[in-house]
Write a structure and sequence with these properties.
This protein is mainly alpha-helical. It has helices at 2-123, 127-175, 195-201, 206-215, 235-251, 256-285, 292-300, 311-329, 333-341, 357-367, 372-379, 390-404, 413-428, 456-473, and strands at residues 188-190, 218-220, 227-231, 305-306, 309-310, 433-439, 444-449, 481-485. It is flat and about 190 Å long.
Length: 495
């Protein structure tokens, strides 16, 4: 029984303790919740305060920016007001100046009217006549000044033009680099041995006669050891004969039938060389559009020389130089280069056609439908025809520059001096001639005549007669200008 009572007491005490523990736990939980709520309220208050501070800071910054913008706008407004004031002042000045100009115009009109009225009163002239008189007086007053100004400008233009022309020529000559010597056409053929002369002549001269008949070249066999001479006015025939003889000597079979076959082969070979030479020259100078007939004649210049200067090399050199000068002065480069390349093409047929090579070349260019500017430049590259285009003047200049370079032409000083003397002697052989001077490297002879024995008409006839005699008695490249000068001098002495 006692044990039961003790057990019941223990249960009662346990239940009471558990109930007390539960009440204590509830009290502690409530206190913790209150503390958490208080902490959350404190934290929320801090956040609100920080947000208010940040909002206040942003508001202050925005107010500062707005203040700056307002200040800038106020400054711009002041600047605009200042500029408007300046514009108003300028407009006022312009209005005043316009007024002054109008006043001056009115004053000038009044002065002119008064002058016209005075002239009308003095000379009894009408208004129109007075105006013309006034203009004449003004022109007379400033005529000398204008003449002096024009003369000064002309002199300055002449000086500048001469200096610029020299600069262009020197630049073109410095840029142009080529050999100043050229191979001469071969007229003497070297034999392998002296026995070859007999084989070329053949039995009773049959071989040499066949060669001369087929080639049209005179073959001269003399006592010169190991050498025969080919003579012909046609350089192409001479070249064909040379090539044919070289083939025959190399082959060893020399008889009339073989000669005919070899000459035909040599002709084809030379024709091919001529065509190739023309195409090479055109390609080297960078021109196109040359008719094939003119190109053929151009290639023939490969075998033509003038005082030892190869005419084709002379022409290609000139074309390159002419292109440089034409580009500098604004002339047509294509026309200039083609005309320069073909300027001596008439020399290829001078042995067939009578006349001067530049006239022949111009006629050929005209015949084959070339541009008239090219025709004129070819025809005017010597002094007997006036050059009227820039392209023609360039051709004339480069022709002189190419031929005059040291070593370009194979002529000794003795031969040159002798030709100059012969030219002067031809001129002085006519009656009425006082003095004669060969100038411009023999391209002009200047003749001073006696004005007592030679009148103006006789001077014209004398120039023609001297030119005719020079053509018939002398050999020379190009043309020679005959310049007859007759002047009247009146001399008196004051005592």
């Amino acid at each position: 029984m006692i044990e039961i009572i003790i057990a019941l007491v223990g249960v009662a005490l346990g239940a009471g303790g558990f109930a007390g523990y539960q009440r204590t736990k509830q009290v502690n939980g409530k206190n913790k919740i209150d503390r958490d709520i208080a902490a959350a309220k404190t934290k929320a208050s801090d956040i609100v305060l920080k947000a208010k501070d940040e909002a206040l800071r942003l508001e202050n910054e925005r107010r500062k920016e707005m203040q700056k913008v307002e200040n800038r706008l106020a400054e711009r407004e002041k600047t605009l007001d200042k500029k408007l004031d300046e514009l108003d002042n300028r407009a006022e000045k312009l209005r005043s100046q316009e007024t002054e100009v109008e006043d001056l115009k009115s004053e000038i009109r009044q002065i002119r009217t008064k002058q016209q009225e005075k002239l009308e009163k003095i000379a009894g002239l009408k208004k129109q006549e007075a105006a013309e008189k006034l203009l004449q007086m003004t022109e007379r007053d400033i005529k000398d000044d204008l003449s002096g100004l024009i003369a000064k400008l002309q002199q300055e233009a002449t000086d500048d033009a001469e200096e610029r022309a020299q600069l262009i020529l020197l630049t073109a000559m410095e840029r142009m680099s080529s050999d100043v010597t050229a191979e001469r056409t071969v007229t003497a053929l070297k034999l392998t041995d002296d026995e070859m002369k007999g084989r070329i002549i053949g039995k009773e001269g049959r071989n040499i006669q066949a060669l001369q008949r087929e080639t049209g070249v005179d073959i001269l066999v003399d006592d010169t050891p190991g050498m025969i001479i080919l003579s012909s006015f046609d350089p192409i025939r001479r070249q064909v004969a040379r090539a044919a003889l070289e083939m025959l000597m190399k082959d060893g079979r020399i008889h009339p039938a073989r000669i005919e076959e070899v000459v035909a082969k040599a002709q084809k070979q030379i024709e091919k060389e001529i065509k190739q030479a023309g195409e090479d020259a055109m390609r080297e100078t960078g021109v196109v559009g040359i008719p094939k007939e003119m190109l053929q004649l151009l290639g023939e210049l490969k075998f033509r020389t003038s005082y030892g200067q190869n005419v084709l090399k002379h022409s290609t050199e000139m074309a390159s130089m002419a292109g440089m000068i034409a580009e500098e002065i604004g002339a047509d480069v294509r026309i200039t280069k083609i005309a320069t390349l073909l300027h001596d093409v008439g020399k290829a047929v001078t042995h067939k056609i009578e006349g001067k090579h530049h006239h022949i070349g111009a006629e050929l260019a005209r015949k084959y439908g070339m541009d008239e500017r090219i025709v004129h430049a070819i025809e005017a590259h010597h002094d007997d025809i006036e050059a009227t285009t820039p392209e023609a003047l360039v051709v004339r200049v480069v022709d002189a520059a190419s031929a005059a370079r040291p070593g370009a032409r194979n002529i000794s000083a003795e031969n040159f001096a002798e030709r100059m003397r012969d030219l002067e002697n031809v001129a002085t052989s006519f009656n009425g001639v006082d003095k004669a001077y060969a100038i411009s490297a023999g391209r002009e002879v200047r003749i001073i005549v006696n004005n007592q024995s030679i009148d103006d008409l006789s001077a014209i006839k004398l120039a023609r007669d001297i030119a005719t005699k020079i053509e018939s008695t002398m050999q020379y490249p190009g043309t020679i200008k005959v310049n007859v000068i007759r002047e009247t001098r009146a001399i008196e002495f004051a005592k």
